[in-house]
Amino acid sequence: MGFEAAAAYIVLVFLISWVYTQWFHPASGNPKRLPFPPGPQPRFLVGNLQDLPTGGREWDGYAALAQKFKSDIIYLRVLGTSILSINSFHVANELLNQRGAVWSDRPRLPMIKELMGWDWNLVVQSYNEGFASHRRIVQQHFQPGVVAEQYRPVMKLEVKVLLQNLLFAPTRFSDHLKRMAGAIIMMVTYGHRVRTDNDPFIQLAEDVRRTSEETPGAALVDTMPILKYLPSCGRLPFLLVKEQLAAGKAVHSMVSSLLENESRPKDGSDEELIKNCGGVVYSAGADTTATALTNFFFGYGFAVFPISKIRGKLPYLSAILKETLRWKAVIPLGVPHCTTEADEYNGWHIPAKTTVLPNISAMLHDPKVYADPEQFNPDRFIAQGTEDAAPDPARATFGFGRRICPGRYFAEDSIWIAISNILHVFSIKGPDGGIKKNDVQWSSGLVSIPSVFSCDIQPRFEGAEQLVREDS
Q: Which family does it belong to (predicted)?
């Protein structure tokens, strides 16, 4: 047999084997021969490739499939990859919270981890990529007590800068929010004070955002690896801290405290771990906070409820914060989970290595839980009469189980401080003309970012302008 014939034979055997394992689903791992969860009928060879929601607002596509098949979970098989979409909090709680030992790994994600080189990032790390050691470090630096004592002064300082920027250039509110969020993260993580809009590390944060526009797990490359190459962003701020420590000029920060820890290895073998932890806080924190606050400007500006409600009423401010997190999920499809082994749920078989998409947007827009979910309405979180307030969206917004966001206390604090100060000083309204509410679109990346829109931002009361100026 010649070389070409032998090669063709090997390819044929491989193809037959692949078709058998992926199409006919043999009983290995499914001894009870249980059915798979509801979902579209797979097609020969490609499975449910044509059924995979793509082209924008994928979270709505998965929610539509759930409605079509009258099931909170939807199962798809795409080119050998099992995908499970969870579309209700009830199921997410049962599987991702209560069965975390099996449902908390991360899938392979070749686009973001292999091609973009982000396997260092705690957010997407699987158990065998150092997840436990990375999370331990990040979590200990973002406990509620640490946030309150060490980080709130930084938040308050940068919110003052935000108020001044809103006063002098209100039309650029989106840029000001990005600057504020990036400045807080830079100071907390690396001890670097952002002093201008052109700060290179703020630009780096924007570069990080651009490299993560494809939702992990939804990109075709995550089912067919090695389709294209995208370079990863560098983590230059780490080098800045090392230089400042060597010169005796370092400002206290998460990274500087880790590098100065007397118990760390003398050979510096933990530097990569420290660099990774700083990088994940920096890359994850700035973009999500700025996006949540941009959603607040849009939702609040176009909402219809009496502005006088918020004056002197902290419970209502808390309701506004909750509605901001609920109304537009910053990470609408969540970060994919992966099952470590086969499992059974509700009489269905869930294969091992299934990519699990927690549809956070669907959970936070469930009409059975949140009445009229498309409306920005903080009243839903204020108990009225004998009716209970709607459940706190934080139970889904920040993820689930062992993968819940370790920076959730930091995120809620920074957003709360920003919103409370903004609404104390400014009124926010949608424009009288020009762009309409339905003209704004949200991107389909991991972080869902709204398109450009305008708001009318004015000082709320006589003396507000002077108050902001005096605080400078």
A: Belongs to the cytochrome P450 family.
Q: How far is CA 450 from the centre of its chain?
A: 14
- What token pair was written down for 88? 């209700």
* Per-residue model confidence as pLDDT tens digits over 434-454: 556 778 899 887 889 999 999
Round to whole Å and give the CA distance between 110 and 118. 10
**Positive or negative CA dihedral for 255, 260, 262, 267?**
positive
pTM over 0.85: yes
* Rounded (5°) CA angle 395-154-246: 115
The phi and psi torsions of 81 (rounded to 5 degrees) equal -105, 125
Residue 387 CA to residue 201 CA, distance in Å, equals: 48
| Euclidean distance between CA atoms 148 and 49, whole angstroms | 47
Are the beta carbons of 101 and 375 closer than 8 angstroms? Answer: no
List the binding residues: 405
135: Cα separation from own chain's centroid: 16
Q: Where do the DSSP E strands lie in 196-274?
A: none
Helix spans in 88-172 (H): 89-92, 100-103, 131-140, 144-146, 152-168
Integer Cα distance of 74 and 36 in angstroms: 9
> Are 341 and 105 a contacting pair, CB within 8 Å?
no
- Using CB atoms within 10 Å of the CB of residue 310, give its burial: 0 to 12 exposed, 13 to 18 middle, 19+ buried: buried
pLDDT in tens, 202-231: 777 666 656 554 445 444 445 444 333 333
Task: Give the residue ranges of the annotated binding site for heme.
Answer: 405
Beta-ladder partners of 349: 344
Contact between 173 and 455 (Cβ < 8 Å): yes
Q: How far, in Å, CA of 200 to CA of 220, rounded?
A: 32
